[in-house]
Amino acid sequence: MSVPNLLLLSSSRVHGHGYLEHARAQLENLFKASNVKTVLFVPYALRDHDKYTALVRNAIAPWGYDVEGLHTKENRGQALRDAQALFVGGGNTFVLLRTLYELQLLEPIREQVLQRGMPYVGSSAGTNVATSSIHTTNDMPVAHPPSFEALGLVPFNINPHYLETDPNSEHKGETRDERIAEFVAYHCRPVLGLREGTSVRVEGNKATLLGDRNAKLFQSDGGSKELPPQADLSFLLSKD
Amino acid sequence: MSVPNLLLLSSSRVHGHGYLEHARAQLENLFKASNVKTVLFVPYALRDHDKYTALVRNAIAPWGYDVEGLHTKENRGQALRDAQALFVGGGNTFVLLRTLYELQLLEPIREQVLQRGMPYVGSSAGTNVATSSIHTTNDMPVAHPPSFEALGLVPFNINPHYLETDPNSEHKGETRDERIAEFVAYHCRPVLGLREGTSVRVEGNKATLLGDRNAKLFQSDGGSKELPPQADLSFLLSKD
């Protein structure tokens, strides 16, 4: 088994598909390879934790997997140690990260994922918090976490729900590319623009782009390039 | 003279107009009424402070106003006390607010605006920091301010560059309205969605919507309503 063992989805929903449906094969590949039957779900990015956990349960129960909510556990540290796999759902990235800090869950999650090899699945905000920091979230900052540094399970940043701005727009707010370029200018760190329907699969020191669309890589030198489906992203795992 | 004396622009650029051109009459009305000849510009929301100050100078010098950059002043507190008017430019709201905290400028600005009645003009990020907090900025969080609480020159929040999301979009990221509703749900505070080309003018306890488009008010109870050009917004100044 490779450590870390990650699946980072751009989004849980894709136009024309049910919740998580587009990612079923990706999820099942991961779960089967790691003999996962029950997933520990982290619902903190949305307000109604029970409802959110039920949404995920209803989506993947038909595929043969059970879902438990971390928020229902009295001893969250023990629940993490016992978990077969962790799924961190999307919603508001600021709320999610603030809650992870408040509940002191960052270190226990890092330990389970990076040392024990617990499979980690993230979607949208759950993908943002898996990376170096949440500096490249699209969300509105409705909550103030003590830091934007996140789990750092991979040493680069991801922009989920990545899309080009309509070049014919008359709107004068910054485009997505301008926003990401601003982050790169301040931090000199690469950002992977992950379009809806695509994912990053990390197995040990190997990373691969999944899904049938390109990703756009914003390089730390300010340049950018398109990467095709199935592209080898392993170079992004090197911290140099 | 009414205190406070504010002009809060949604944006400095509007499709089909030069930089600040759409707001010329609004700016000149304010400057003439307060006998302003020189504007103290706060350029911290962008990286190149000299270039940004020159951009503003070139825009309003032809109208007969001089512009000085706060970043060129050795004694910023004295510069604020001497200023005829303050203009806080747009860019990245997080960078702007973090810099205001770092340079300990929030209290001196509040004092000048709320006690001495110094005219304050803000645009986009400069409008966000004038309100209760920057929780309703659209920007990417490229910097981490110690708090999202801002100048509080008005007791509500503004979403600059407000626009409806295209209802035919196949994109699954949250819409602008969903993002603002999320803020309201967490904070129970009203948000004024300020479309490009519109502004809020505050003179003492009177506030008015300027420009020729509606604003959309997201009420603290979760409802929303459209407000027409020239709408009286004074009710938003009451803290109850």
Apparent shape of chain A:
globular
Q: Rg of chain A, please?
A: 17 Å
Helix content of chain A: 25-40%
Individual helix count of chain A: 7
Looking at the overall shape, the CATH architecture of one domain in chain A is 3-Layer(aba) Sandwich
Most extensive chain-chain interface: A-B, 38 and 38 residues
Report the top-level CATH class of one domain in chain A: Alpha Beta
Helix-strand pattern of chain A? EHEHEHEHHEHEHEEEEE
Oligomer classification: homodimer
Structural class of chain A, please? alpha/beta
Stated plainly, the CATH topology of one domain in chain A is called Rossmann fold
Strand order of the largest sheet of chain A: 3-2-4-5-1-8-9
Low-confidence stretches of chain A: none
Q: Characterize the biggest β-sheet of chain A.
A: 7 strands, mixed
- The overall pLDDT of chain A, averaged over residues, is 95
Give the end-to-end Cα distance of chain A, rounded to a whole number of Å: 25 Å
Q: How many strand segments of chain A?
A: 11
Keywords (chains A, B): Cytoplasm, Dipeptidase, Hydrolase, Protease, Serine protease
InterPro entries (chains A, B): Class_I_gatase-like, Peptidase_S51
Catalytic activity (chains A, B): Dipeptidase E catalyzes the hydrolysis of dipeptides Asp-|-Xaa. It does not act on peptides with N-terminal Glu, Asn or Gln, nor does it cleave isoaspartyl peptides
Enzyme class (chains A, B): hydrolase
